[in-house]
Each structure stands twice: as C-alpha cells, then as structure tokens.
Design goal:
The chain is mainly alpha-helical. Helix content is 60%, strand content 2%. It contains 51 helices and seven strands. The strands form three sheets. A three-stranded antiparallel β-sheet has the order 5-6-7. The longest helix is centred in the first third of the chain and has 49 residues.
Length: 1367
C-alpha cells in the first residue's frame, strides 16, 4: 500500500501545470515540515555512552534558551501601556479610586511579565554559573591528573550552548536598556499599587527589586559578573568560549547569519566578564588568542543585535577595568570600514557568483530529472550523490554570506546615520537619517539586487527539495556509514593491538560510536577481526553497507560528533592521516542538521525581517509607527518604479518579501498580533501604491510604444533633427513589464495575488479614462478636431491590442461603446455622433464657407452666428495624448494643421468613427434642418424679397454699355441693397442650406471611398483579383475551402475533434463573405439627398415658380420666378464691397451659390437663369463692348461674376449628374398669319455698328419692345407706399409659417395686400402672341427717372450705389 502511495505521489510530481509565469519572487511554502526536530534530547538514554550525561545539561540549556527567546521577543515588542491610560490630575479628584483601580487591573498582567522576566534572568544566571562551576572543577582535576584529564573533555557542543547563553544575557540586557517604557509603566503601576495598598507586605519588596532591576543599566550583566567572580577559574571556561568563537569565525563554521552574529557578540561580552582584577586581566591572559580577536573586531566593528538594534564590539571592551589602548590597537577609520560593510562594492563579484551557481544548479537539476526519468531505480553513485550534496551546501553558504552582508550593512547604516545639516529640524526623525536619507541610489539598487539574488536562489533550491532531499539523506547516510564501517575500523584495529588502560577507554568510545551509528548490511553486525587487532583475510574486499535515504537523528548526530571530538582531542593516539580523517568528518558533519532540514534552514538564512522592524527607533522617537515613506522595503520598491530602470524592473517584487519575513516572525516567533496588523496595514497601502504606480508606468510605456509606432516617420526624423538632445523621447524605451504582467499567483502575507488580473483591471480603467479624455477633448472643440479624435482613438486601440497580448482586457468595442454612451437603454447614438451633429448644425453650416477649389470648409471671416456653447475640455495631460511630453507635442502640433478647415479627410474620419448608423442619423438631422430652413425661414424671406423687387426689370440693351447696364441694375436693386436682413438672415440661411448640400456631396464621396477601401481589403478573401473586380454571385474561396473541410469531416467523423466549432467557422465564413461583398447596385447618398431636397421644395414650388406669363411661354421683364430673385441676389453678392468691409463671397463662400443653384435646378429654371441673369447679361455686354471698362469697381465686379459663373456651371453639372432637373412642358408655337408677317421682320440697316448692336442685343437674351417706351430702361419704381400689381404686400412682412423676425418695410405703410393666386401651369392657355418688334433703335429714356442712365458710348460716369446696410 505504501509503495502504491509513493508511486502515485511521484506521478503527481511529473504532471506539469500550465503555468508559464517567470519566477521573480521569493518562495512562500504553504506547509512547513521539520523532518529533523531535536526532541530536546529525550532519546538520549537509548545510547550507551558517557557523553549522555552532557546531553542532560544541553537539554536544560535548551529549555532555558527557548524561554529566554520568548522574553527577548516580549521585551523587544513591548509597547507602553501607560500612555493610553487616564491619569489622576488632582489629589482631590472624585474618581481617583476608580482610575487607580482601573490602572492596576490593566497593568497587572504586563507587570507580571516584567516580574517573570526578572526572576528568569536571576534563575538563569544561577544555572549558568552552576555549570560554569562544574566545568572549572573538571578543569582543575584535569590539571592535577593529566592522565585522567585526557578523559575529561568538554565538547564543542557544550561550549556552543555556553555561547548561546551568554548571547541571551547580552540581548536581554541590551533590550532592557533600550526600552525605557518598561520603567515608565512600572512606575505608573507602582503609583497605583501604593495608593490602593494591596498586599503591602509581600509585594513591596518584590516591586522594589523589579524597580532596581529595570532602572539600573546593565543590571543582568552586573548580576552575572557578580556571580561569576565568586567562581574560581571561571575565566578559563570563558576563555574556551572566546577561543571557540574565534576558531568558528576563522573556519566559517556557521551557516545562519544569526549564528555568525552571535559569535561576534559573545566575544566582547565574555571578555568583559573575564576582566575583573589584576589576576584576571584579559590583556595578560595567556590562553587567550588576543591577536586573533583583535583581527576579528577590526573586520567587524559593528554587529546586528536584534531587529533595528546594533552594537559596537569595542564598546564593552573599553568598559573593562584593564582596558589598555596601547595593547588594543585602534580600529580603522569609518571610510575604510564603510567599504567593508557597504555591499555596493561587492555587487559585481556577487552577481557573477550568483550567475555561475544558478547555471550549475540548474544543470544539475536537469541531469537528475533526466536520470530519474530514464531509470526506475536509484541510479546515482555515491560520488554523484556527494557532488549533489556539496552543490546544495555551496548554495546554502552563498545565501548565508549574502544575507550576512545585507544585515551587517543595515547595522552599519544604523550606527552611522546621515548627519547632514539640511536634515535638521523637528520634522526629521532619527529613523529617517538611518534609512530614508542614508542610502544612495546606487546603494538602493545594490541592496535590491542582493535581496533578489538571495530570495531567487533560495526559492530555486526550495522548489527542488523533494528532488534533492532523498539524495542528500542518502549521501549523509553513506558518509556516516563509510566513516563508521571503514574509517573507524582502522582506528579500532590500531587501538586493539595495545591493551593498555588508556587504549581501552579509547577503544570503548570507538565501539560506542560504532554501535550508535553503524547500519550493517542485512541488519547483523559481522565478525570483524579488526576488533581484535587483526587483519581480515578478505582485506581487499570493499565493505558493503546498505544505501538508505535516512539521516541520523539530532541526538544521535550530537553524540557521534561529541565522541569524534573526543577522539580528535587524543591526537597522540593517531597518525596524521587518521587525525585528518577524524577532523574531516567532524567538520563536515557540522552541516548535517542544516542539510537534513533544507527548507527551514533556507528560510532562516534568508530571513530579512530586520530590514523592516523599527521598535528601537519607535521607542527613541516616541511614535506609534512611521509612514511608508520611511519603510525600507517600500523605499526600495518605489525606487525601482521611479527610476524606470528596465534591468531592475524584474526585482520590484523581491523587496516586498521582507514584509513576508516580518509577518512570519511576528506570528510564529514574536507572537504579536498588533505587529502583524501593522505589517498588514502597511502592506495593503504599499501594494495599492505599487499597483497604482506600476499600472501607470505600464500604461505610459504602451502609450509611448503605440505613439512611436503611429507617428509619421519623416515627421519624426525632422523632430529628431530639431531636438537632438531629446530625440530618444520619440522612441519607446526598453523595459520588461511583460515579466510582471505574467505574475498570476504572487505570494504576499499568505495571499495568492493575481497581479495580472489586478493590472488588467487598472488598465481597463486607464483605457476608459483615456477614451473619456479623447472624447471630452473632442466635445470641447469644433468638428475639425475629429481627425485628432480618430488619431487618439487609434492610438488607444493600438495600446489595447498590445496590452491584450499579456492582459485580460475588456473588448475594445465594449470599452468604446461604454465611454461613448452608445449602449444605454435610452440612447444608442453616442456622444461622438451627438456632438458631431451639434457642431454641424451650430458651427459648420452657419459659420463655415465652402471653397469649391479646395473642396474644404473654412471658417468665415465675419461671424454672423454666435459661437456654440461647448463643455469645458479636460486639462492637457501628455499621458493621454502621446505618453510623454515630446510625443504629445508632436501629435498636438500635427493635429493643429487640420483644425483650420473641414474637408473630406475630416468626413472620412467622422464616417469611420460613427459608422453607418451614425451616418444615417447625421444625414437625417441635416435633412430635417434643410427642410425647416425652406419651410420656416427661406420661404418667408423669398416672399418678402419678391415684394421688394420692382415689377419690371428689363435687361438693358447693349447700347448703354457696361456702365449703363451696371448702373441700371444697381438702381433697380437699391431696395435689395438696403434690406437690413439681407446679410444676417437671407444670405446666412441660404449659406446654411447650400453648405448642407455640399456637405452631403462630400459625405457621398467619403462613403464611396470607404466602401472601396473595405472592398479592396476583403477582395483577396472573396476571390477577386486586380483584373476582375466585378461583383459576382460565386462564393469566396475561403468559404468554399472551409465547406470542403466540413464535408470531409462529416464523412469521416473520427477526424473531427469538435464538429460544432467547425460548423461555426463555416457559418462565420459565409456571413463574412456576404458582409464584405459589394452590392451589385450602387447606392449614392447624395442622389438620395437630392431626391429629398426636391421633395422639400414641394410646399413652395408653386410660389417660387412664379405666375403664368402673359404670353403663355416665358416672362422676360416681369416675373416672380425664383431665378429672377436669385439673379438679383447674385448681383448683390458680386457687387464690390467697401474697402473697409468684407465682400459677400468672403463672408458666405460658395455654399451660397450651391443653395441658389440647387433650388433653381429643382424648380426647372436653370436655362432661364443662364439666359436672363443680371450678372451674366452685364458680363455679355462687357464681352461685346469695343472698349473694355476700366473702372476698378466694375473690373472687380466682372472678376467676381466670372468666378460665380464658373461655380454655378460646376454646381449645375454636378446636380444634373445626380438628378435631372424638372422638365418644362412642351409649348407648340403656331406660325404667324399673313397680316402679321410684316411685323415679323426688321429692316436691318447696313450700318455695321447697328449689325453689331443687333447681334449683341440678340445675344443678351431679350428682344426690344415695339413701342418707344419699352425700348428704354424703365423708370425707377415708385415708393412702396401704394400697392404693387405683383407684390402681395407693401412691406417685407408677408405671411408664412413661422417667418423670421419681421424686417422693416421698404416704403410707406399700407395694409398688406393678399397674396396672389397660384400661377397656372405652363401648359394652359392658347398660343402666345408673337414677340414684339422694333423698327428703329429705342430713344433715350424720358426724364421721369430719379437718375437717368448714361447715353450710349462714349460712356459717362455713373454714381456708386448706396453701401450695403450695416450689419
């Protein structure tokens, strides 16, 4: 059954768990098992040897040391209770009795501990002196009878216990002297006790003894020295102690740092106890190796005492009565000693040693695993096992050396605080001087690396303990049996030859050692001639002993070593080689207990809890606790985070293991719950800070990485040239954050922390905050920042994609939808769409001018609409833009270039961000706005402007020339010029309407480009090539191939591991095929918009089409059609502006032309507009003129008209491409009758000027009337005081639903006439009358004009028109 269990356990060890996280933390074993417990020598009676008597004393010392350790912990962790208790303020206080009663009840348990402490030190001193006295007696007997004295040997194990006892006395005395609160609390208790007068007779003397014990410095040492002085020869025993300490330190016969420091502390303490009088002068004692002691003191002047306490070795020596500075040479100065203590100078060799050993250990482990995998039995030879054990022991010694150096440097820093005068002040405590301000940046890095090497190597060994422990135990068992059955065999033969009494005692010990340790093959001791001093006949045969993975018990090992030590002390009995064999085994067996308890030993070696504990400085500064800024583990962790050194980033978790060590000590050794609570609270705070800073640095690193990847490379090159010193800022720095992000079970205070999950949560928050910042920045800006928004979102998306390789982040679409608020139950539009609509309606359409040449909207130079109210933007933060300042400035400067206009690139960005659903919403809102403009605004203004125009507006004949025609229209349209709402309302609203149409055209162009790009990207998967991009009904290759795979798997289901997944893949391929395949019929947004615009004109179509002409065909001089009004408005638009004013084209841009042309197009009035437009007519007159006009204002007018004409033609061409104009009804013209035939012809004179005049007149688009009055320009219109035959009202306040603010009337006040009836259709009525004829050129106009037009050329000056109304 047991073999089956072992086999199953071994099988479990072979299972590899899917955990690929790098090991960058100390090991934290959840279960600790000590397989080599001491049992306190309870099994000593099982062994027959005289050394058993010594183990009884060791057992007693063990109990004392265990109790003494508890008192050490109690005194070190003692906190004052009296500070928290109420005090009696006055003698006549009413509740004085209750207060003292409470004080007594609270303090009684604590004072009892102090009393127990006093009694313990008193009893321990007696026991210690008792054994010292016994040893002195033995030593005297040894001196009297040298032969007998050879058997009176004091073992090194016993001396080691004396060393531990002396160290306990020194620790207790130093801790008692440090804790002033002990005496304060006892005085507080004594005062309450005296007032209550309880048990006065019995406890008064006891309290007085406790008071003296606590009040006197070095009271324990004084009492011990007093007792020792009474023992004659005690200094000889203490000399053995000092010499053994020196020998152990020289031979490095220690493994735990505590053991090394114990040896160092005991040496000056024992010397101080030995120096009593002239007879017992340590400087004259011959059996003391004082030179060796001095060398040790010089190398180690400062030694850790306990926790944050330290001591100077020479401090006690200098207090001795016979201290002689001449004999005791001076120690080196602080600078030289600092080099010995500071680990910064050792980091290079230590790093090399660590790397070499790690490689050696890893190679050894791999070989062991391979060997065990290939063999079912134990396949290692004894030599291989010994090499493995030596390698493990070498690792333990390295760990011990490194830990000792770390703790000794800490003690050196405590002893040498930073006394910089800049740190003087009440706010700077002493603990800051020794910790926070006492380590340079290089020293912090060195300390972190030391901690990382210590914790990393210890974890590497502990993780392989299950693999190494059987081999180590087998090695120790083999070495012990080789020593007992081979080495001792020769010693026994040598001793057995002589039958002297002395040799008999030695032989007896050899046989005892053999009986204690031998493990015979077959379980039976063989008959060995060597026991009788003879050689065996089979001497050449190798001694066989069983190979077992069993080590000796603690008691067994101590007895073996004591007997061996006794044999070594009889060097005269053995040869040199035999002594060497004994010494080799004795020295090697010293490390057996550590190798048998591998994990506890490593944890004890690597215990760095002293780097956190600060009870001495809390007592010194009278504080409850220090902030984390003064805590060394957090200082080291924070230093790594702040430095951003990629080489040190992997060490960031190692300093936190100091908290694990401190918490482990607080729970298992100090038994202090409040200390653990303080550690836990600090860890919680530090870990939150670690997560915050680490997450911010990780996000910043990925942000810089994404920004550096997305930035334009030539642009970055220019930036690097401009800023050569900071060019590294445009590249992603090196780092190793990925190692930290792969930590999924980091151990901290017994918790398994998923660092990957915690970082993922914070990165989700950072990404959401970044998206919020980008959208908030967009909402605080106009729509031109849409490119910047897209750039920021692309940057964040790349950050998300890079992070998703190592972190479990929320899907990008989900994050964007949540922040954009497009997933709520009440709205699915999103903030980007809504702000885009807001900006289009309130900024782009009313405040931007369209430029047909650049195809861009540019902000107008003359604002007519108030700026939209936007939310306040977030504060500028380089983290959210580019990751660092340099990249953020580069992206910001680049984005500023696109904020001066709004064009196709902005619309492409907008469409990519808002998608198809958002595009439909934007278009719908724009169309609703256009419909509202036509119905509620433009219709009323068009009616009012029609009423303001003169009823007869002829096109003047060419005879009047350019100036005449120009002045004629100027006078005819003076009321239009003077209309106050022309610019702020009429042109402004027409501009918005035209900008809307242009914007829809740009939307269509951008949408087509996006769809084309998507198709080109998906074309290879859909089976399209560059030679054949015509959409077909053939399925895509990817779908067809997947379908074949699915059919194959269905036919052979044994090959299908997951048929459902295959079906899902095929279904997704089919959906992708039909999703990305372009539509056969092309749909145009602009075409649909124009169709809607045509429908919008239906409510005003009849009114804007004008009344039926009198001739039934076309009205030339008198019409209310829209094109005639637009001709007037176009004349005003082209009219030169005052030098101090902006022109109408500068203010309103090309959107104004788009509005008029679109309405004219859908009203079917394009050809009449081209034929009868006022500006075109003047331009034709100028082109036909023999002498061009040279007036600046007229030349500027022609320049503007030419531009307007080109724009109009372009607009009409676009409109005709997408939507044909309304077809006018066909009118049949019957030939004239004979009696009218003479009126159909003109007698054309022979004068070529008249021919040219006739030609120009016919080119102008209109024929002169028959009568003379009709041939001249009509008189100016009368005042609008009376009703006009065509105008529905004498004022511009005509009806309409609901009109803009009523403009003032042009003329006098009269009641508005009812609106005219709707005009009849063009197809009604009979045949129109023939056109009027003229026989001669028209006479000059009569004098009824307000201002007569100029005569035919040569042309005279014409007055300037009145200026446009003030805005």
């Amino acid at each position: 059954m047991s073999s089956e269990v072992i086999e199953r356990v071994q099988y479990l060890e072979k299972i590899r768990l899917p955990d690929d996280q790098p090991t960058i933390e100390a090991v934290a074993p959840s279960v600790l098992y000590d397989s080599h417990s001491t049992f306190n020598y309870q099994d000593r009676n099982a062994y027959d040897t005289h050394w058993v008597e010594e183990t009884a004393a060791m057992e007693r010392f063990d109990n004392i040391l265990r109790n003494g350790e508890n008192f050490v912990h109690m005194v070190y962790t003692y906190r004052s209770c009296s500070k928290a208790l109420p005090q009696v303020k006055t003698a006549d206080q009413s509740n004085k009795n209750e207060i003292y009663e409470g004080i007594y009840n609270v303090m009684e348990p604590e004072i009892k501990k102090l009393k127990d402490f006093m009694y313990f030190q008193r009893d321990t001193i007696k026991v210690f002196c008792e054994y010292i006295k016994k040893l002195t007696v033995l030593m005297k007997e040894k001196e009297k009878d040298k032969k007998k004295g050879e058997d009176l040997i004091i073992s090194e194990t016993m001396i080691t216990y004396f060393i531990k006892m002396l160290d306990l006395f020194a620790l207790l005395d130093a801790l008692k002297n440090m804790k002033a609160c002990l005496n304060n609390d006892f005085s507080f208790y004594k005062r309450a006790f005296g007032f209550l007068k309880r048990n006065m007779d019995d406890q008064t003397q006891e309290n007085h003894s406790v008071y003296l014990f606590l009040a006197n410095q070095l009271s324990i040492t004084t009492n011990l020295k007093t007792e020792l002085v009474q023992i004659e020869g005690f200094d000889d025993v203490l000399a053995l102690v000092v010499n053994q300490c020196a020998d152990y330190l020289e031979a490095e016969r220690y493994l735990l740092p505590v053991e090394k420091h114990c040896l160092l502390r005991v040496m000056p303490y024992a010397l101080f106890l030995m120096d009593v009088d002239t007879k017992r002068n340590i400087f004259k004692k011959k059996d003391l190796n004082l030179a060796k002691t001095q060398r040790i003191f010089k190398r180690n002047p400062v030694v850790p005492l306990y926790g944050d306490m330290q001591t100077t070795l020479e401090s006690l020596i200098k207090k001795s009565p016979h201290f002689d500075e001449k004999v005791w040479s001076q120690t080196a100065d602080d600078e030289k000693m600092a080099q010995e203590y500071e680990i910064l100078r050792l980091i290079g060799p230590t790093r090399n040693a660590h790397n070499d050993y790690t490689a050696k250990f890893a190679n050894m482990i791999n070989e062991i695993k391979v060997t065990q995998r290939l063999s079912n039995t134990f396949a290692f030879t004894a030599q291989e096992c010994r090499e493995i054990t030596n390698t493990v022991l070498q690792g333990l010694q390295l760990l011990s050396d490194w830990s000792s150096k770390v703790l000794q440097q800490s003690a050196w820093k405590y002893a040498r605080p930073n006394n910089d005068i800049q740190l003087d002040g009440p706010q700077v405590v002493e603990y800051e001087r020794v910790v926070k301000h006492n380590y340079t940046s290089e020293e912090r890095f060195a300390l972190v690396e030391f901690i990382g090497m210590i914790k990393g190597l210890s974890g590497l060994i502990i993780r392989e303990e299950s693999l190494l422990s059987p081999i180590i135990k087998r090695t120790l068992h083999g070495e012990l049996q080789e020593f007992v059955q081979i080495t001792l065999r020769e010693l026994i033969r040598t001793v057995s030859k002589n039958q002297k009494k002395k040799e008999k005692n030695v032989r007896s010990e050899l046989l005892q050692l053999r009986a204690i340790a031998a493990d015979w093959m077959g379980g039976t001791e063989p008959v060995d001639p060597a026991l009788y001093g003879k050689k065996s006949a089979k001497e050449d045969e190798k001694v066989q002993y069983p190979s077992r993975a069993v080590g000796p018990s603690p008691t067994q090992l101590d007895l073996i070593r004591n007997i061996t030590y006794g044999l070594i002390c009889r060097k005269k009995e053995w040869s040199g080689s035999q002594v060497k064999d004994l010494e080799d085994f004795y020295g090697r067996s010293f490390f057996y207990p550590y190798l048998l308890t591998l994990t506890p030993t490593i944890l004890a070696i690597t215990d760095l809890a002293d780097l956190w504990y600060r009870e001495f400085y809390l007592e010194l500064s009278k504080r409850l606790q220090f902030p984390i800024e003064m805590s060394l583990p957090w200082i080291l962790t924070d230093h790594i985070l702040e430095s951003k050194d990629p080489a040190m980033m992997e060490f960031v978790l190692y300093p936190l293991d100091v908290y694990n060590d401190a918490a482990q000590r607080a729970l298992t050794k100090l038994n202090s719950r409040f200390l653990y609570d303080e550690i836990e609270a600090e860890v919680n705070l530090c870990f939150d800070q670690l997560l915050f800073k680490l997450s911010e640095e990780i996000f910043t690193w990925y942000k810089i990485q994404a920004s550096a990847a997305l930035i334009d490379k030539p642009y970055r090159t220019q930036l690097e040239i401009a800023a050569a010193e900071t060019k590294h800022s445009y590249y992603c720095p090196k780092s190793r954050y990925t190692v930290l992000m792969r930590q999924r079970h980091f151990q901290l205070l017994g918790r398994s922390v998923d660092l990957n999950d915690l970082i993922s949560q914070r990165q989700n928050t950072y990404i959401r905050q970044n998206v919020e910042y980008a959208i908030g920045r967009f909402e605080a800006s106009d729509l031109t920042s849409i490119l910047e928004l897209e750039g920021l979102l692309l940057n964040i998306q790349l950050v998300h994609r890079l992070m998703s390789q190592h972190l479990q982040l929320d899907p990008w679409n989900q994050i964007l939808s949540e922040v954009n608020e497009s997933t709520s139950l009440v709205s699915f539009h999103g903030r980007i769409v809504l702000h885009s609509i807001f900006e289009i309606m309130n900024d782009i359409l009313p405040s931007y001018n369209f430029n047909s040449i650049t195809q861009r909207f540019v902000r107008t130079t003359f604002e007519l609409a108030p700026p939209p109210l936007r939310e306040a933007g977030p504060k500028a933060n380089s983290l959210w833009i580019g990751g660092n300042k340099a990249l953020s400035n580069a992206y910001t400067n680049s984005a500023e270039l696109s904020k001066k206009f709004f064009g196709v690139n902005h619309i492409l960005s907008l469409l990519r961000l808002i998608g198809d659903s958002g595009t439909a919403l934007v278009i719908g809102e724009i169309l609703r706005n256009m419909e509202s403009k036509i119905t509620n605004v433009l219709s009323a203004y068009v009616k009012e402007l029609h009423a303001g125009m003169q009823s007869h507006t002829k096109l003047p004949i060419h005879d009047y020339g350019t100036d005449g025609a120009y002045g004629y229209f100027q006078l005819k349209l003076k009321e239009i010029f003077a209309y106050p709402d022309l610019r702020p309302e009429v042109f402004h609203n027409f501009r918005q309407f035209g900008n809307s149409i242009v914007l829809m055209n740009l939307f269509d162009m951008a949408n087509i480009e996006l769809k084309t790009m998507r198709f080109l990207q998906a074309a290879p998967l859909l089976g399209f090539t560059s030679d054949d991009l015509v959409p077909t009904d053939t399925e895509s290759p990817i779908y067809l191939n997947l379908q074949k795979v699915g059919q194959f798997l269905e036919s052979k289901p044994e090959y299908a591991k997951c048929p459902a997944a295959v079906r899902d893949i095929i279904a997704n391929a089919w959906q992708a095929d039909h999703l990305y395949r372009p539509a056969v019929a092309h749909t145009s947004i602009f075409k649909s918009v124009l169709h809607r615009v045509n429908a919008m004109l239906n409510p005003v179509r009849a009114e804007w089409s004008g009344a039926t002409p009198d001739n039934g065909i076309i009205a030339v001089d008198q019409t209310t059609e829209f094109y005639r009004l637009w001709s007037a408005l176009q004349f005003v638009i082209c009219f030169p502006a005052d030098p101090n004013d902006f022109s109408n084209h500068e203010i309103f841009g090309d959107g104004l032309m788009w509005a008029g042309c679109t309405i004219i197009h859908f009203l079917g009035q394009q050809k009449r507009f081209d034929l009868f437009d006022f500006c075109y007519h003047i331009l034709n007159v100028e082109e036909a003129a023999a002498v061009p006009c040279q007036k600046p204002n007229v030349k500027q007018f022609f320049k503007t008209v030419s531009l307007m004409k080109d724009i109009n033609q372009s607009v009409f061409a676009i409109l005709n491409t997408y939507s044909k104009s309304a077809q006018q009804p066909i009118v049949l013209l019957h030939p004239p009758t004979e009696e009218q035939s003479d009126q159909m012809f003109l007698n054309v004179p022979e004068d070529p000027r008249e021919n040219s005049l006739m030609t120009s007149t016919s080119t102008g688009g209109g024929a002169p009337p028959k009568d003379d009055s009709f041939g001249a320009p009509p008189p100016p219109p009368p005042s609008f005081g009376g009703p006009s035959p065509l105008a529905p009202s004498s004022s511009f306040g005509g009806g309409g639903a609901p009109p803009p603010p009523p403009p003032p009337s042009f003329g006098g006040g009269g009641a508005p006439a009812p609106p005219p009836p709707p005009p009849p259709s063009f197809g009604g009525g009979g045949a129109p009358p023939p056109p009027p004829m003229f026989d001669a050129p028209p006479p000059p106009p009569p004098g009824g004009f307000d201002m007569a037009p100029p005569p035919p050329p040569p042309f005279g000056d014409f007055g300037m028109p009145p200026p446009p109304p003030p805005m």
